[in-house]
Structures are given as structure tokens and as C-alpha cells.
Amino acid sequence: MAVATANKNTRALGAARAQVNKLTMYDWTALDKRGKRMSGELQAKNAALVKAELRRQGMNPQTVRERAKPLFGSSGSTVKPRDVAIFSRQIATMMASGVPMVQAFDIIANGQKNVRFKNMLIDVKSNIEGGASLHEALGQYPVQFDELYRNLVHAGESAGVLDTILDTVATYKERVEGIKSKIKKALFYPAMVMVVAFLVTMILLLFVVPVFQQTFKDAGAELPVPTMVVVKASEFVQAYWWAIIGAVVAAGFVFVAAKKRSAKFAHFLDRMSLKIPVIGNILRQSALARFARTLGVTFQAGVPLVEALEAVSGATGSIVYGEAVLQMRDDVSVGHQLQLAMRQTNLFPNMVVQMTAIGEESGSLDHMLFKVAEFYEEEVNNAVDTLSSLLEPFIMVILGGLVGGMVISLYLPIFKIAGTT
């Protein structure tokens, strides 16, 4: 009987949530008691309820229109991790200040410029009003709020310290996004150099070299070997420029598709990237920082170590380190110490292993992990700044050598003709 009642209540709660999710967004205009025109938006089942709510607030409804649905999919731009990080800090600050959760979601949603994220927060708020817990409501959007995020929120709800955990989560998201931003900065610079070098070369071969080629032909000059190489390259590009561009674009698509669909290829790329001079070291330090920060946060939240390692495996930003963390999880699950499991992977520096060992022995593992994270976050910052300063002269040499070499090869016949006259 009790089970049947529980099932009935569960079905009723599910139906209530489904009904809440069917609410439609309406844009309205109304006159207040002073005759001043007001406008806004409101979710309701129909326009009549919107008008009733406006009258209840002492306003005279003028127009109530259902918000038009976007022509192509959901409106608004993509929800970025940075949006989630900012939201995490806002909700943590409001709950720590005593603002009720539903009201906090209302305030944050109304301040969102990203329409898609705004609608998402409104939907989460509606689910909470329908009886769902915060981690259950966030579970409707697993892409934006991953398993680690939801597990931390769940731990905070279970322990009755949700505001504290949300503050910890906010700090964690800000630090992780800061590291990711630094890595993107480190990789973006050389990638853009390659793109610029390719475009400059194509422009020279397609538009500049043919002009000189015609001049050489009219003069009947014998071309030196460097000039012949450039001219032949120009002729090839002029004849097959469409094939070259198509091959480059196709190669990019094939590369991305292979990385997404082939685990072995993705693992190979990740392993090779860690061996690239300078950049590989930055990626390695970033993985260590994210590992230490994430494990420290989950452990501090009271998540059991084995479960914490399971969640951390997907948060390192590296397939190689993610697999190592899963191996550590298996070792810890059979009774091994964390520092011993770390040592077996041969991926963690001795300093990290030793600080982890001290943390385990002193009962302050989370504190030690945060210290490790801070150290490697600072190392990443310094390494990226150093890389930027080193790349600038290197880039000048590459572009200067490429453009200068082509220009010199084109002027060699001119110098030869001038010398014989």
C-alpha cells in the first residue's frame, strides 16, 4: 500500500513538473496606476492568466502576445562554460546572502543576455517550484551542468551546506575556466600564424608571381633555380587552387571527425601533444592543475574518494591523464593509498605524489591538493606568458623568411638582367 502511494505521488509530481514545463513565455505591455506604460515578460499557461496576474499587481493590461518561436531551433547563442561559471558565482553569492533559491533564479534569469541560457534557468526554476531538488533540475541539462557539477550540488544538498558548496563550485569553475582560457591563448597564437602564412603564400603565388612571370617572359631572361621553383609553384597553384583549398578544408573536417569518432586516434593525438616542446609542458601542467583542483573540491564536498576519482577522470582535459585517473580509481577501490596509485601511473611529478602522501597522513588531503593546484595554475600562467614572448620573434622569422625568400627569388632575374645591360 505504501509503495503504491509512493508511486502515485511520484507520478503526480512528474505530471506537475511536465505541466510546469508547458508554460509559454508572453511579452506584455500595461499601464500602472499613474498611467505610465510598463512592459515585461511572464510565463503562463495562457494569455488570460497573464492579464489576471497583471491586474492582481494593479496594472491595466494593454497587449499580451505569445513570444514568437525562433525560425531555426532554440533562440540565443550557445551556452558557454564561462556563462555557467558566472551563474555559479551569482547563485552562490545570493544564497549566501539569504536570498531564496527560486527568487535567486528569477533575478539571475532576468539579467541574462543569452536568451537560451535565460530560458534554461527559467526551466530549472520551474522544476524546482514543481518539487525537484536543485541537482535533479540541473540534470535536465547534462551538457551545461556535467555529472561532476551535479554531484557536488547533490553533496551540498545532502549535507545541508548548499550555499557553501555552491561557493566552492563557483571558485572551482572560475579557476578551471581561467586555465582553459590560458591554454586556448597558448594554442591560438601558433595556429593563427600558420593560417596567416598559408594565406600570404597563396596570395603571392596567385596574384604577385604571375606579374613577374610575364615580365620575365617578355624579357626572355633565363631564370635562376630559386625563381623557377617559385614560378612552377605559382603555375601549380593557379591551375589547382580550388583543389588545394578543398584538400585543406577536407583535411580539417576529417581530422575533427576522426578525433571525435576514433578513441585510438584521439588518444594518439593527446599523447603526441604532451610531447610537443613547450606546449606539451603547458598541457601537462594544466592537466595536473585541473586534476588537483577538481579532486580537492570533490573530496572537500564529502564525496567518497573512489567516486571522486570517477568524476575527476573527465575533468583533467587530457585523455592520457583521464585514463590514468581511472586506473588510480581501480587501485584505490582495492585498498591502495592514493599516493601509491598515483606513483604507479608514472605521470605525476614526485612533488605532487609527496604532497598527496602528506595530505593523506595528516588528514588534510583537500588542502594539499589545493596547494598543488595553485602551484601548477601559476606555472601555466608563467609558461603561457613566456611562450607568447618567445613566439613573437619566431613568428617574425617565419613570415619574414617566407615572404622575403619569395621576393628575393623574384628579383634575382631582374638583378641579372640589370647586370648584363
Can you put this structure into words, describing what you see?
The chain is mainly alpha-helical. Among the domains are: 18-66; 81-177, Type II secretion system (T2SS), domain F (Receptor-associated Protein), CATH 1.20.81; 279-380, Up-down Bundle (Receptor-associated Protein). Helix content is 75%, strand content 5%. It has 16 helices and three strands. The protein has helices at residues 2-21, 47-56, 81-96, 101-110, 115-129, 134-138, 147-159, 162-219, 225-261, 263-273, 279-300, 305-312, 319-333, 338-345, 350-362, 365-420; strands at residues 24-31, 37-44, 60-66. Strands 2-1-3 form a three-stranded antiparallel beta sheet, covered by helices on one side. Helix 8 runs parallel beside helix 16 (365-420) and helix 14 (338-345) packs antiparallel against helix 15. The N and C termini lie far apart (111 Å). Residues 1-21 and 71-76 have low confidence and may be disordered.
Précis, in short:
Its main location: membrane. This protein has 421 residues and is mainly α. It has helices spanning 2-21, 47-56, 81-96, 101-110, 115-129, 134-138, 147-159, 162-219, 225-261, 263-273, 279-300, 305-312, 319-333, 338-345, 350-362, 365-420, and strands at residues 24-31, 37-44, 60-66.
